[in-house]
Amino acid sequence: MALLENEIKDFVRARGVEVVGTAGPERLDGPPSLDLSYTMPGARSVVSMALPMDTDAIYDFLCKRSPAPHNLDQFLSYQRMQRVGKELADFLVLRGHRATGVPLSADYRRAVYVFRPRPAFSLRLGAMAAGVGGQGWSGNLKTREYGASIYLGAVLTDAVLESDPVLPPGYFIAESCVKCKRCAKACPSNMFEANGEEYLLLNGELHPRGRRNNIDLCHISCFGLHGLSADKRYSNWGLHWIDTWVGRRPEDRSHLHVILDMFKRGLTVGDAWPRFDVLRVLCSKLWPPEVLEGIPGLEDLPEEESERYRVLAEFSRRMGVTGIDDYPIPMICGQCALVCGPTLQETSERYRALAESGIVVPGPGGRMVRVDTYEEAAELRRRYPLRAGMGAKAKDALDSIANWHRYYFGFEPRSFVQSRIYSRKLRRAVKGQRGMDG
Ligand code: B12
Questions:
Q1: How far is the CA of 66 from the centre of ligand 1 (A)?
Q2: Mutation to probe ligand 1, out of 29, 81, 105 (largest number of atoms < 8 A from CB)
Q3: pLDDT tens, 337-351?
Q4: Is the CB of 48 under 6 A from ligand 1?
Q5: Residue 364 CA, ligand 1 centroid: distance in Å
Q6: Hey, is 360 helix, strand or coil?
């Protein structure tokens, strides 16, 4: 490996990010969101980095003890990744190159249907190209070191970097996912199937993953609009249910029904925009040190749940987001990634923790209460309904419409053309493979 690549890795590892890889221009033939020039004109290479999620915080989350440690872990880790990205970009500039850190989420391309987000640059695809990991059954990027429970970051540069070796297509699927698929069981809205594959085309190779039913289902559970599993045995940390989905397989509903249900629920909860906005502002930039001043680390997080919420609400407020102070928990799902550990044994332990964790619903004073059965949860929901006032609902509906329009709505000819070309190549490759399979 050449000198600059080694320097980059030493630089990143010295800042505590152990898993790092590079991909040069010959490795970047794939879906449109692998086009580096969309984010940085003239970029030729990507440096991909992965940080592990905190394991104790994952267990607190999955066991329904508290969602606060995992949320704080995400807040701090995303900022840490932004900082390492910025420092690495500055380092490359000092070496005479151009370079930029990539936003860590919510940097979507403009689209007519804004809720099927296409990132400007896909960190998962970058990580696959740079040999940091491979696609797991859930579509999450999986690493040998930590499984899929990771945060990804990347720096793009005009330097031509030597590429690291990649994992062969289907590496994790064959090695562990076929025996496991706990991720599919951990998704409350059944966004993807435990059986049936689909493919991603990267550098001429087809990478398998679980067939997706409908990506809107992922938004519905990840943004807390419906958090109850179809078998009514466990939930995520979301506040709401879509009543007509209870006890049903949401994936059996048509796409149009799912969209209508998503709008009906999302536009009446009263705090949908600030819940998304925290993620947007957290992931889009490196905040100045004042924002983190006095915010405890995970090990110093107070024991009392309301105190923990105060810490998270304060963090959000310093980033300019208000309106979710009573329950400042933006990351309420992601269970497909959280259960996926570095070994099959760890994954099955995490899944067991989730499957036996029961259901959380808002109880007295809106505080989340954990119960064992669906009947108890349904009774609490009847006794303590969460109802936003008309004013809050109207304001939030207007904020949501205005801001999704402002940041994400539009038509981009370039993305449209790239997408058509990629789709055609993918169809051909899949047909070719089926032909070879006989
Ligand atoms: C959009 C998004 C979401 C959405 C949608 C999730 C999804 N499944 O796509 C929501 C908000 C629901 C979400 C949820 C979660 N996310 Co998220 N999310 C992203 C984001 C911004 C882009 C994901 C992505 O790469 N999509 C594009 C491609 C790869 O997805 P695709 O649909 O499979 O692509 C196909 C087509 O769309 C097409 N295509 C690709 N690009 C383009 C572009 C255009 C224009 C067109 C037309 C087509 C097209 O080709 C592809 C293959 O055929 C990334 C950050 C980033 N910038 O990369 C984080 C990211 C993927 N999320 C992450 C995480 C951790 C989560 C959660 C666990 C929640 C949490 N705790 O944070 C869950 C996991 C859900 C899941 N199973 O994926 C991590 C992933 C870690 C990992 N191990 O992979 C990332 C990388 C953020 C980070 N910085 O770490 N996420």
A1: 25
A2: 105
A3: 999 999 999 999 999
A4: no
A5: 35
A6: strand
CA separation, residue 265 to residues 96, 220, 224, 286, 389 (Å):
51, 9, 10, 32, 14
- List the one residue out of 376, 270, 245, 285 whose CA is nearest residue 323: 270
Q: Are 121 and 109 in contact (CB under 8 A)?
A: no
CA–centroid distance, 108 to ligand 1, in Å, is 10
Residue 171 has pLDDT above 80, yes or no: yes
The model's confidence at residue 1, banded by pLDDT at 50, 70 and 90, is: low
Q: Which atom of ligand 1 is nearest to the CA of 53?
A: 65
Place of tokens 């059965």: 373
Collapsing DSSP to helix, strand or coil, 124 comes out as helix
SS3 221: helix
Quote the percentage of the chain above a pLDDT of 70: 100
Match 């594959």 to its residue by tokens.
197
> Is residue 183 within 8 Å of 140, Cβ to Cβ?
yes
Pocket test for ligand 1, best of 124, 258, 282, 416 (most atoms within 8 A of CB): 124
Q: What is the pLDDT of residues 363-399, one digit of tens each?
A: 998 899 999 999 999 999 999 998 889 999 999 999 9
